[in-house]
Design brief:
Blueprint: H1 2-17, E1 21-29, H2 36-55, E2 62-70, H3 75-87, E3 92-94, H4 98-103, H5 105-111, E4 115-117, E5 133-135, H6 140-154, E6 159-164, H7 168-171, H8 174-185, E7 188-194, H9 203-212, E8 216-220, H10 223-236, E9 241-244, H11 251-257, E10 265-268, H12 279-291, H13 300-318, H14 325-333, E11 359-366, E12 369-372, E13 377-378
Parallel strand pairs: 1-2, 1-3, 3-4, 4-5, 6-7, 6-8, 8-9, 9-10
Antiparallel strand pairs: 10-11, 11-12, 11-13
Helix pairs in contact: 2-13, 6-8, 10-11
């Protein structure tokens, strides 16, 4: 028995000394709230990025200690969790939603804690307004611009409507950016309609939109509300062509509405699981064979989460163990054409812009598959 205790103690000592130190990262994710349908797989991507880094040396020999919180898409809970992260001495945070991320900008700025998020709000990319916020993905404004440019080149009457949820996330692409861009490009904005994130009926809003009869409509939602829109639109026989921003476009939508999804279009700055020609997709397929052999498919939101955390953790590796906020900010702002293995366009941050990705493709669902119909469109 004594030999067993000594052996166990020795193993514990080896385990304790395997890492030079630990680096704490806070993660805010919605798995149970209004955007949980996209938040849960996004969070799984984040977890796998941390797992892979820890299996491959951590952060220059320091173990990543991830503190993961499901805040249920409630801003007060997000702020409370962030304050707890600060007390726990995290060196960076990966957040989630637009409303809560923007509500915490003042705290993040005062505390000088780099804050990545899944919100692609334009405000979060402007260092004079949010000096410690970073995003890995095309902004909602850039996605809206790309979609409007597509409409300009493919529409007969150049008319569009905006369908959105009444939250910071829902309003971010369209007010005022989308309104201004339609005027600038010469696309006529003929209607706007509010549809809740979990609404199961959008008939009245779509009947109102039908009066304006737009040729195209842009959607800022997640899968559930988008599925409601497509089902009700099919019932009403509307002619409108829908283009959704990134949170509406994914394999889950096809699962929810089946053939009704045929022809649906969307913007995305991320590769999809079927894009096996992409190095990063081949990498993630092998990673999942190792960590999750029972899983043979991952939605695009998983790829988004992995990509963003991959960039964040890569920046920490580049910091040479100086995890002060000021140094990390400089390190991230020095990233130029950082390679995400093709999961996104190359990532570039600078002192002038914290929008890491300014390129996306427009995709269309064809025979149950999500296929690109454009090359990368770069935001101007």
């Amino acid at each position: 028995m004594k030999k067993l205790v000594v052996f166990a103690s020795a193993l514990l000592l080896v385990w304790q000394t395997a890492w030079a130190a630990s680096v704490k990262i806070g993660v805010l994710m919605d798995e149970s709230g209004g955007t949980g349908d996209v938040g849960k797989p996004y969070g799984e991507g984040i977890k796998d990025a941390v797992l892979w880094f820890n299996d491959n040396g951590g952060i220059n020999g320091d173990k990543i200690d991830m503190i993961y919180v499901d805040y249920a898409y409630k801003i007060p809970q997000a702020i409370s969790a962030y304050k707890q992260f600060k007390r726990q001495n995290v060196v960076a945070v990966h957040g989630w939603g637009t409303g809560d991320t923007e509500a915490m900008v003042k705290f993040v700025t005062e505390d000088k804690i780099p804050f990545f998020s899944a919100s692609y709000s334009q405000h979060l990319t402007e260092p004079d307004k949010a000096p410690y916020n970073f995003i890995v993905g095309p902004t909602y404004g850039d996605q809206t611009t790309a979609a409007l440019k597509y409409i300009l080149g493919h529409s007969k009457d150049k008319t569009v409507a905006f369908l959105y949820n009444d939250s910071g996330f829902g309003r971010a692409p369209f007010f005022p950016h989308g309104q201004n861009k339609t005027a600038e490009l010469g696309v006529k904005l003929v209607d706007t309609q509010v549809i809740g994130l979990k609404d199961l009926d959008a008939t009245s809003q779509l009947l109102n939109m039908k009066k304006a009869d737009p040729e195209y409509a842009l959607i800022q939602q997640t899968y559930m509300a988008t599925s409601t829109i497509l089902k009700d639109s099919a019932k009403l026989g509307l002619r409108t062509q829908y283009i959704g921003l990134n949170w509406t476009l994914g394999e889950k939508l096809i699962e929810l509405v089946g053939d009704i999804a045929e022809g649906y279009m969307g913007t995305s700055g991320f590769a999809f699981w079927d894009n096996e020609e992409v190095e990063g997709i081949r990498f993630l397929r092998e990673l999942n064979k190792k960590y999750h052999p029972q899983i043979t498919f991952r939605p695009v939101n998983y790829i988004q989460g992995f990509s963003s955390m991959y960039v964040l953790l890569s920046g920490l590796r580049m910091a040479d163990k100086d995890y002060s906020g000021e140094n990390l900010k400089k390190v991230f702002e020095s990233m130029k054409n950082f390679n995400t293995m093709g999961l996104t366009a190359p990532v570039t941050f600078s002192p002038e812009s914290h929008a890491g990705v300014n390129a996306m493709k427009i995709y269309r669902i064809e025979q149950g598959k999500i296929k690109p119909i454009t090359d990368y469109i770069y935001a101007e």
